[in-house]
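Posting for a labmate who doesn't have an account.
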Amino acid sequence: PRVHALFDNVSGTADSFSSSHDGVAWREHSVLLSLRVLCAAAGREEAFGRAVHEGQASLSVVPVLQFRAPSKGPFVSRVLESYDVNVVRLSQLLVESAGQQLFSCEVTPAIAQYIGYRACSLNDDEDMAKAAMSIVAYLGNSLSHEMTLDALCGRSIEGGNRLAEAFARRLLMPSSSSPSAAIVKTSSSGVKELQHLMMDLILHYLPFGDNSLSCILLGLSERSFAVPATVTKRQTVAVSQVMKIHNCLDAALDLLSNVAFVLSPETSALAAKSYELVCRLYSSSSPAVKVPIVSKLRSQDFWYRHLLRFLGGGPDQATSILKRIAARTSSTGRDAESDYEVLNCIAWVLKGCALELYALSGHLHSMVPTQGNANMAAVLAPQPTKCKRLLCLLLSHPHRLMLHALIDMPMGRPELAHRLSMGAPSRELLHEASKPMEGVADTVGSHHVVIDPIVLVSLIRKQHGQQGAVILSKSVSPRTEQELAAVEWAKAWNEYAKYTCASSHLASAWGLVMSSSLVSCQQFIIQDVSSSASNPVLGVDGIVELLFALLSRLCADPNKQSQRLEASVALPISDVALQLVIFLSELNHSVEQEEKLKMCTYFCVAIASCGSGTDTSRNNERAA
């Protein structure tokens, strides 16, 4: 970055030069080509190393930039100059470059800075960022976590701050086709892929401790802010206070504050990963991570606002986002895949809400060490007022978000699932063309697979002895009706698998919130109505009403395909029904005889509906 203009505070571009300036154009092209050379070396490292070690002769190179050709003539005799070289891994060279005192700028931290740099003279202004991110990913795969962290941060005490700011700048940076970060639908696919890679990197290193690469990028590590003060405009300001707003956590929260970013088909998948990041941080067992993230989210009323966003009908919308998404996912549509990502977003919010109820009820107070500071004790202490406020949003009038979510939740088999029984390829072909679905276990489960249409067509052609048994391209056009039918079936299966995973994830998250409410916040759910302190959040009548609504959703006619329930979705809902019955049985309050008979009738119908569907194991478990 020292060969470029200083990054602009807002956009991180070389705007201090004109884009037509020959100097900046030369510099950007030179850096881009250098990064591409490093990427090419990293990509061919293994093959090149094997070739060198298998060869008998030593390896020599001819220096091109200092090339000296052999001289001819009777007076001068000189051969072509070459040098023997010892081949080492590129990662070793990059790490060792950080310790060189000859250069004022370290190589690896400088490369990482280009992740947050936007070029102004290149055709693709993200080329440099993508090349730099590829090298960072290569280092993460080649080195230990500690070595990767030291190489990226460098010797400078501000290295962690600069690294976090570069990543955050890229997350917030709009595409060249979009003049504003708020316009997300026109973002290029290059930015999307780069941002996904960055978010995957952060999620990968989360379990590595308080001073991991993730914590530094998120602004949650003490190492990120252990820097001296600096003087700005005659005022001494701690660099930690200046840099703390430039990190990936604040960038992710800023992105999630824009509902268009969450609902857009181009960015809903990235929004789901951002919600996952927030939820996983909230579930951290480390007080050093837990306390700042709890304080930050509560200061923004994060869970309350986002629950209302997805489950409550706002003043400008007649129905909730969940209800609109559920209506679309029950039938095929062009935005179906992005709708599944929105369902995952809602599921992560519900999981975070369950964690918040657990924290507000005081179950995290044991995390405070004996010599813990007052701020940590205050954050993790029981907060009954906030706990009841959140419970009222979920269970009481007028919102009753959990009841409305139960009613709106997609639980039935979608229309495309009914077409999978016709025209399916052979079981052997499907088995060979299947692969595990990409994603974390929370969203894809442990058994869901998708069908690769390219491999499927290749296997069909191989079966008929045709050319094209091995296809290296990323797309293939079916030639025959059999291939066309097989590809259409594979697409329908993959769509059905995504629907099942997203709806199951949502149902499981809904069940977690109900379990957390019944177990952690029992003192607020049922309370003596005659008490002058407060009224119960739900009460016996509210629990009975919720149980009837739950059982009515589990009752389906097994003889009607359109009413069949998805077994993996209905199972966690059935678990909540059992919890509610046990909860009622442990109370001293009696339930009316008429309601008991109605309850038994609902249970019988719900058990009878378990006889439909193909997932026998889950149906049997639900019936039991």
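Reply:
Got it, the structure tokens are right above this. The CA atoms of residues 266 and 325 lie 16 Å apart.
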